[in-house]
């Protein structure tokens, strides 16, 4: 007989399959076991579709087995009517006698209520199996709801001698430091996050696309800092204007923006998550030093952005590091030497993980 941990581990594995597709819902994983055999599995469908528990129950061929089964799930089953009926009701309806949960859902609409419902119906509930791993898996969802800001990932690539870019560049495109495998991994990461952010100089000097073109999945919403609204309309990030937010200085009033005929001003409160329909501009007060990262984060929260990967440049990354407003840093070190140029930021935290990707070293830091 396998342990509870074994099956929650499997839940976590399949929960990863939904990452980046389920927002604003968390990507939950669920496994149903009867007679020591997995008889059903499911993860959260794209927003609006069935939750993990329902997909797992639907995948069971012989439904009569549910009456003697254990349902394993990374997050407490929901108890409220959202786009779909409550999962706890469906579990009760199928008379599943035992439920094992990774971690509780802090969402005030759910918190403890799903469990209370199950227990009231006579279901045997176990909570907190691989709790930390489940919380880590659901970290974007928890950060958004508990800290009222997106989960923030810093990412950059530096040379062996610690530079992001060389002194001089001949073309308006990135000078690659990392190998193609590392770069493909970055595209996978881009599919997992809600948004991606870069600073003004990065757009001017690299003309990045910021898409996930080398991985299957959706592109993140692009966010760009443009204090003076000086970025030209023809740069790649504005090719598809439906998915771009520009953050500028409060002094750039709407008159200037209207004159440039480039922007449509939408205050964040008018926007809902799925309705990014043109280049949008948001304002922060750049004169308030040491609060810029916080102001950006507040703006993104208003747009309901759950997570963001910040891909440079040095000044932008440094802003978030100095304000200590980040959760995770993913730093590549490639074998190249630039012997001068744009210095990479420095992070002094404990290393969480380090892996070799051919000749690149990827180091992950966590800001706990
Ligand atoms: N190797 C890598 O992973 C990466 C390398 N790069 C390289 O880095 C270089 C660009 O880096 P960098 O020059 O640091 O530029 P950034 O891309 O960080 O852009 C900096 C600009 O953004 C605005 N800005 C950002 N933060 C603040 C702040 N706290 N206060 C005020 N303004 C802010 C300012 O615009 P304004 O001047 O209008 O006020 C500033 O000049 C490029 O050469 C690019 O190739 C870029 C990304 C990743
Ligand atoms: N040079 C460098 C990176 N540079 C980052 O990638 C951006 C380009 O994105 P895209 O145009 O979508 O390919 C660029 O502007 C900068 O933010 N990234 C890396 O993983 N490795 C590298 O060596
Ligand atoms: Zn549910």
From TrEMBL:
Look up the domain of life of the source. Answer: Bacteria
Q: Which residues cross the membrane?
A: none
Catalytic reaction(s) noted: 2,5-diamino-6-hydroxy-4-(5-phosphoribosylamino)-pyrimidine + H2O + H(+) = 5-amino-6-(5-phospho-D-ribosylamino)uracil + NH4(+); 5-amino-6-(5-phospho-D-ribitylamino)uracil + NADP(+) = 5-amino-6-(5-phospho-D-ribosylamino)uracil + NADPH + H(+)
Cofactor(s), names only, from the UniProt record: Zn(2+)
Q: Where is the CMP/dCMP-type deaminase domain?
A: 2-118
Q: What is the UniProt remark on how the cofactor binds and its stoichiometry? A: Binds 1 zinc ion.
Q: What is its EC number?
A: 3.5.4.26, 1.1.1.193
Q: Which PROSITE patterns does the record match to this protein?
A: CYT_DCMP_DEAMINASES_1, CYT_DCMP_DEAMINASES_2
Q: Which UniProt keywords apply?
A: Hydrolase, Metal-binding, Multifunctional enzyme, NADP, Oxidoreductase, Riboflavin biosynthesis, Zinc
Presence of the UniProt keyword Ubl conjugation in the record: no
* Summary of the function given for this chain in its UniProt record: Converts 2,5-diamino-6-(ribosylamino)-4(3h)-pyrimidinone 5'-phosphate into 5-amino-6-(ribosylamino)-2,4(1h,3h)-pyrimidinedione 5'-phosphate.
Name by which UniProt lists this protein: Riboflavin biosynthesis protein RibD
